Amino acid sequence: MKHTLSILMRNKPGALSRVTGLFSGRSFNIESLSVAETLDPDFSCLTLVTKGDAAIIEQITKQLHKLIDVVTLSNISQGEYVEREMVLIRMKADGHTRAEVLRIVDIFRGKVVDVSPNSYVLEITGSESKINAVLDILRPIGIKEIVRTGKIAMKRAAKK
Amino acid sequence: MSKITGAQATIKCLQEEGVDLIFGYPGGAVIELYDELLKSPIRHILVRHEQGAVHAADGYARASGKVGVALLTSGPGATNGVTAIATAYCDSIPLVVLTGQVPRALIGNDAFQEVDIVGITRPCTKHNYLVDEPEDLVPTLREAFYLAAAGRPGPVLVDLPKDIIAAAIDYPEKTPIRMPTYQPNITPHLRQVEKACRAILKAKKPVLYVGGGVILSDSNEELTRLARRLSIPVTMTLMGLGGFPGTDPLSLGMLGMHGTYAANMSVAKSDLLIAVGSRFDDRVTGRLDAFAPEAKIIHIDIDPSSISKNVSVDIPIVADCKLALTAMNRWFDAMTDFNEQAMRNQFAPWLEQLEIWKKTHPLSYVDDPEIIKPQYVIEKLQELTGGDAIITTEVGQNQMWAAQFYRFDHPRRLLTSGGLGTMGYGLPAAIGAQLAFPDKTVIDVAGDGSIQMNIQELATAKECGAPVKVAILNNSFLGMVRQWQELFYKRHYAATTMEFAPDFVTLAAAYKAVGLRAKTKDEVVPVIKEALATDNVVIMDFVISREEGVFPMVPAGKATTEMLLV
Predict the structure, then answer these.
(1) Beta partners for B497?
(2) Chain B contacts of A58, Cβ < 8 Å?
(3) Distances B93 to B89, B336, B476, B563 between C-alpha atoms, Å
(4) Do B122 and A14 lie within an 8 Å CB cutoff?
(5) Do residue B305 and residue A62 have CB atoms under 8 angstroms apart?
(6) What's the complex ipTM?
């Protein structure tokens, strides 16, 4: 089962490699990760998607806690949360497909961010399943290249 | 305040941390540090190989309980230390390893003697640092000493670029270390303590399974009190030996792959396993599904990631062993109707069963009137040192025979590479231990293979005046691998027959040490006596029965009840 971990860590050189080294050294799996500075530039937030049974996830979280550079971490997929991923798609878009691609982009509330005579670059944001759905629809038309960000996620505010 | 150099600040900081002994080897990147070291009261021990420096610091740390310190130069100096750093990491030994680094401007340029030692040691240190600003130097060193010893101890490496060592800095006032990102939980949850104590009261067949955490936290007294007042038998891991007196009637000796019959059977049949500072290592558990199958499991450990890592635990207590055991003792103190005799009666049938196992399958070997048996050598070492020597070991058969047949009554008397299993550990570790305790007898129990891995440290021992004794159990084999080949690989002794070895007696003489040899059983005691009476480094070369095996033995992957016996 997939789990999304949100890891707050010290924004120090090498901190990220401590996290990734832990995963490779202990044969844990990384599906995706995304990291950037937080509001406080001394810290960065890493969203990491991994999979494993309950025992493995428990080990992963405990081992991450042991890293000196890790401040806090939460398995946010255990509660209510919002997740987003972005993808940039370079599409083949010539005469007879240009209009269709635009329609699909519109349906998925995406954007065209670069245009050339025979291609578009599209930007689509959403959940992982939405992104997969867009890619499925666009694939027959002709995807040339994609770059995905990996998931970022945030807990929902407590309802009260 | 006037500025001082980074090197001066480093030495000042080491003194502030109470360091009086450093093991190291100089090089271009650390010349400034050595220059300052020369002027300071800190004693520096020049080793002959950097691995020896870190092992010696490790031996010093294990014997004394203090943080060990090693100083290595950049590049090969640092990489030579890696095996020893990993050794300390696997056994949770507090070390601070200082490495030189090329000047910051050259980092990343493939400079002479440049290596990314922080990258290399990331997975085998508790934490490591590259100091990248002069003003970070002292705070980083302080943090390193704190981290090495706090919580679950471990080695911490600090990489020091040469220009930072040369930079002029203000020496910052010492302030208490505050690390919001590192706050190990050391006090036990009292509800968990109560659960554990109640489980003991309900048990019929309890056993304490004690690991290195008891040694590291100096909680042998608390453990001994608990075990004795409750009449709970105790088995120890290799790292836990000495955590409970090995000659106590409640001691079952070591468990696991080369554990005693009684120890392994007790775990297999117990209804309550109380793990204290132990980590359910594969050499202890054997086949996991057959490990303590009938037992409820209590696990005391300072490291939450040790709990339920290999074996699912029923009552976890995340805490320093000493505090947890103290809390358990207090709980029983507060129990109004607690009665030691009642506990003894409650466990009487279990203790009787254990006595039967001990008597029917004691640790044993087939002695010989002429040929020297290694187990006999260890027994005599124990006898002639009154069981009070500090024993270091190399790795392999020598290590297991020492663990089995030298019955350790005190903690910090057996220094051995348990987790990583590093051949070449014993001699430099013995030097470190001897310097921590100049008046104690320190013996490295070695094999003819592993002694050659760091034999150059004989020169270190001589130079620094550490009269360590080396007992080589010489079978002209890489004995433990040979034993596996005999049992599981159709006696194909591939690469385990050491056809050539130096004449260890002559070798000792070359180092101006004393070399003694025993070829027959009756020569063993005189050789040991002479060695113990000699105020010099001594190599005892015991020519032992060549194909002697270590038994009992649980074949890898088998249940611990499937023991091969003598």
Answers:
(1) B477
(2) 308
(3) 6, 40, 32, 31
(4) yes
(5) yes
(6) 0.91
Number of other residues whose CB lies within 10 A of the CB of residue B445:
31
- We report the CATH number of the domain holding residue A8 as 3.30.70.260
Cα separations in angstroms, B358 against B207, B263, B267, B431: 15, 9, 14, 36
Q: Which residue of B has its CA nearest to A60?
A: B305
What CA–CA distance (Å, rounded) separates B356 from B348?
12
CATH number at A108 reads 3.30.70.1150
How does pLDDT run across B468-507, given as a tens digit for each residue? 999 999 999 999 999 999 999 999 999 999 989 999 999 9
The CA distance from A100 to A93, in Å, is: 9
Which of B181, B182, B288 is the best residue to mutate to test the A interface, defined by the most A CB atoms within 10 Å of its own CB?
Answer: B181
Residue A160 lies in a domain: no
A66 plus A87 within the same structural domain: no
Number of domains in chain A: 2
Distance separating alpha carbons of residues B377 and B475, to the nearest angstrom: 13
User: What residue spans of B361-472 are helical by DSSP H?
Assistant: 374-384, 397-405, 426-436, 457-464
Residue B1 scores a pLDDT above 80:
no
In angstroms, the CA B480 to CA B470 distance is: 19
Contact A62 B132 (CB under 8 A): no
CB-closest option in A13, A14, A71 to B181? A71
CB pairs under 8 A between A and B: 37
pTM to 2 decimals?
0.96
A21 assigned to some structural domain? yes
* Residue type, position B174, single letter: K
Residue A68 touches chain B, beta carbons under 8 Å? yes
The parent domain of residue A128 ranges over 82-155
Supply the pLDDT for residue B512: 98
Burial B325-340, CB ≥16 within 10 A → b, else e? bbbbbebbeeeeeeee
The rounded percent of chain B whose pLDDT value lies above 90 is 98
> What CATH architecture is B4-169?
3-Layer(aba) Sandwich (3.40)
User: What are the chain B neighbours of A66 within 8 Å (beta carbons)?
Assistant: 303, 305
Interface touch B182/A71, C-beta < 8 Å:
no
Query: Are A66 and B305 within 8 A, CB to CB?
Result: yes
Chain B hits for A70, CB-CB cut-off 8 Å, are: 181
Burial class (CB in 10 A: 0-12, 13-18, 19+), B538: buried
Question: Which residue, among B70, B71, B75, B163, has the nearest Cα to B116 in the 3D structure?
Answer: B75
What tokens appear for A8 in the block? 């707050």
C-alpha B68/C-alpha B95 separation (Å) is 5
Helices (H), chain A: 15-25, 54-66, 98-107, 128-142
List, as one string, the DSSP characters of B15-32. HHTT--EEEE---GGGHH
Based on the domain organization, do A50 and A113 belong to the same domain? no
Please tell me if residue A59 touches chain B, with a CB cutoff of 8 Å. Answer: yes
Residues B23-47: pLDDT tens digits? Answer: 999 999 999 999 999 999 999 999 9
Cβ neighbours of B69 (radius 10 Å): 28
Residue A133 phi/psi, 5° resolution? -65, -45
